[in-house]
Structures are given as C-alpha cells and as structure tokens.
Amino acid sequence: MKTLIQQDAWARREHFAFFGRMSSPMHSLTTQVPCEPAYRYCREHGISFFLHYLHQTLIAVNACDNLRYRIEGDQVVQYDRIHANTTIGRPDHSFGFCPVQFDPDFQQFRAYAEPAMQAVIGASGLCFNEECQRQDVIHFSAIPWVAFEGLTHAHHSGFPDSVPKVSVGKLHQRDGKLVLPVATFAHHGLADAYHIHQFLERLEYGLNHPPCLT
After folding, report:
1. 6: how many CB neighbours lie within 10 A of its CB?
2. Where do the H-state alpha helices sit in the chain?
C-alpha cells in the first residue's frame, strides 16, 4: 500500500524541487555502528548474523518516514512497508539479486528469506527479474571482506532513482568496540542527514538489544 503525497502542502516541496533538478541527487553517509551484543547473541543461538542485521536494517528503515518516500513519475508516494532487494554471494564469488520480504517478526522474516537466498545461491547470473524492480524496497548489499570508510555505487547518470541503498561492511574492532561499517545513499529531495541519523540511531538500538530476536 502507498499514499500519494500532496506536494502543494508538503513541507519538503521546495527541497524536492531543488534537489530533483540535480543530475546526481543522491547523498551518501558512512559510519561505524556498534553491534557486539547482537553478534554474540547470534553466535550463541545459531542465528545468521547477516539475517539479523538485515532484519534490523529493515526495522530501522520502516521506522523512518522519509526513507519510505519514492518518486514515481512526477509524483511522490509514501509506502506503508519497505522490503529488501539484497545481493547474495555464491561460492564461486559471483552474486545474484534476491528480493526479501520484510516481516517485523524475525522468525517469519527468516522463513521468507532463507529459501529465497538459497534459490539465488543455486542459480547463476544476476537473477534480475521484475520483482527486483519494485520501488517499495531498499537496495542492500553486504561487503564482509572490507571494513570500508567510504563507498560509491554504480548508477545511470540522469536515471531517476529514489530507492535508498544500504551497504554493510566487515565486522571489526574499533576503539575497543565491535562495529559494522554502514553506508547509506538517499535522494536528497526526500531525506536529509537528520533522517539518516534517525535510521542509524534505530539500527544501533536494534543491534545492541538482541532479546528482540526471541
């Protein structure tokens, strides 16, 4: 479900018009998010840490109104629920795109996600299909080999893209804490740095309160 935004009365009307004219309106922010309680909980209970932080990412995205905005033609809509289109790696080091349905309940989310991921692992090529082109998603990728401090994405210059992107890097120690690099990309006409802060704050909370998995 989605709601049409009435732009005449929208508080972001001028922001949307200003940044929407730019050839590259996506802005990026990279930070390190503490995550040790969730990582230890996942190890102790045999839970995929990848699935946990993907789930917490979607919880955080869905809690942020601005990250649920999308541009469709000359209109702006807000989706009720956001899912994921994530990259899934294979043993041969190729990857495919994998749509993953969000559910607030982790066990239900895992029941949807695991068979979808296994299907991509067992396939070949990008697996880029109609489902991957949905707008009610984030584009998500894990880069577990690199504790990155900055990141860019390939994109079509001038191609209208308002789907936020979230990438997570290598788990590592920083200042005595176990942290994950997290890079965000969002359309500046729809979301500012403050809204990314809201997302990151909720993500950090989820990664440091693992009893929510039970």
Report:
1. 10
2. 13-20, 36-45, 49-62, 106-121, 193-207
Q: What is the pLDDT of residues 142-185, one digit of tens each?
A: 999 999 999 998 877 667 799 999 999 999 999 999 999 999 99
- Rounded CA-CA distance 37/186 in Å is 28
20: tokens are 């929407």
- Cα(129)–Cα(144) distance, integer angstroms: 25
Report how far residue 77's alpha carbon sits from residue 5's, in angstroms, rounded to the nearest whole number.
5
CA distance 193 to 196: 5
Whether the model pTM is above 0.70: yes
Chain centroid to CA 90: 20
The token pair at 105 is: 């309940």
* Alpha-helix runs per DSSP H in 4-129: 13-20, 36-45, 49-62, 106-121
Q: How far apart are CA 64 and CA 200, in angstroms?
A: 10
Q: Assign residue 172 a region (left: φ > 0; alpha: ψ between -120 and 50; beta: otherwise).
A: beta
Average pLDDT on 102-122 reads 97
One-letter identity of residue 187: H
Report the C-alpha gap between 158 and 63 in whole angstroms.
Answer: 29
Residue among 79, 34, 10 nearest 172 (CA): 34
Any idea what DSSP says for residue 10?
-
